[in-house]
Amino acid sequence: MTSLRITPRSLPAAALVGGLLFATAACGTEASPSSGSGGKAESKPTPERTTTTWEEPASYVYTMTSSEGERNLIGTFRVTVRDGKVAKAVGLDDSARRVVRQSPGEVPTIGGLLEELEQARRDNADEAEAEYAPDGHPVRISLDWEKNAIDDEALYVISGYAPAGG
Asked: Of 44, 58, 113, 158, which is least packed with CB atoms within 10 Å of its CB?
């Protein structure tokens, strides 16, 4: 049996070899597509960045909570869309009531929110992400044009979506 003797002089080399062995072992722990993990490599989940296949109906209702950043469009709104345009917006909190009273044209359709998301992606925003419901409509859109800038973020949470007649 051979023994390995580590002296103070050989310690840096031993640490390097140990680090390389650890890194090699760590790289081998990720599941491969052929492993028993259901055919998917395990990795950190990333938000969906592709365009959804959802088609915005001409008429629907939804609730939007708009927060983050220094913008006029802040608050919770119940929105009715008819013929592709906002027909009615009701502010559900003080901030939203002020927006509806002063700038009703600022309340968007879901399609308008998706256009803002796509524009942020074209502008290479630091964050332009969306999460989608099983039917394909967005339920959360998060935007941040510059990570180190203050108050340029926008967060839209969409709930209570229902197509007209549905």
From this structure: 44
110 token code pair = 């879901």
Distance CA 44, CA 111 (A): 29
**Of 33, 17, 60, 52, nearest to 164 (Cα)?**
60
CB contact set of 18 (below 8 Å; sequence gap of 6+) = none
Over residues 62-82, the pLDDT tens digits come to: 999 999 867 778 999 999 999
Residue carrying structure tokens 């998706």: 114
Q: What is the pLDDT of residues 114-139, one digit of tens each?
A: 999 999 999 998 899 999 999 999 99
Q: To which H or E segment does residue 154 belong? A: strand 153-163
Read off φ and ψ for residue 129, nearest 5 degrees.
-125, 155
The reply to whether the predicted model has a pTM over 0.85 is no
- Side-chain half-sphere of 47: how many Cα atoms within 13 Å? 15
Residue in the block written with tokens 């001409």:
58
